[in-house]
Specification:
α2 crosses α3. By secondary structure, this protein is of the alpha+beta class. A 4-stranded antiparallel beta sheet has the order 1-2-3-4, sandwiched between helices. It is built from 4 helices and 4 strands, in the order αββββααα.
Amino acid sequence: MSADSPAWEQRSTARVVSPVRPRKLAKVPFVELADGRLQGVVSSGSDIERVYVSSVAAGTHTYDCSTNNNRPCGGLYGAPCKHLRLLVDEAVTQYGLDRVAGYLRADVGDDGDLIGALGGGVERTPVAMVFSRFLRHLAYLELPGATAPLPELHWFPAGAVR
């Protein structure tokens, strides 16, 4: 075992990836690289009860942004809206530019402008699955801290709670 990493990381079958930099969760409480997309939930700037589910598809770079009740974002006018820009920025903070660009299969120039490297257009995607996963993650915040494994997260090592 390496002296640089804890024993539970050595025994883990799932690689634990630390965030590149800590991020604030107020504007973008949920971001993930999953299902062939960068996807997440972005808070509305005008209505505390509204969130937007935004996504960018890997490879094609098509994107979508809708409210949690499937209404299209009013800012999608042939270019990514502010919610998509916030999502991409937070994904880069969470995972790093190289990992996000690699996942999306985007060629980012020397300027590091990932959103500018995305050439796709609007393609509507179902938001229910992403929003449901976000709500499920919120439910974990209500659980008391423990080191025993949760059945839904059985693939995490028991000592991974921080």
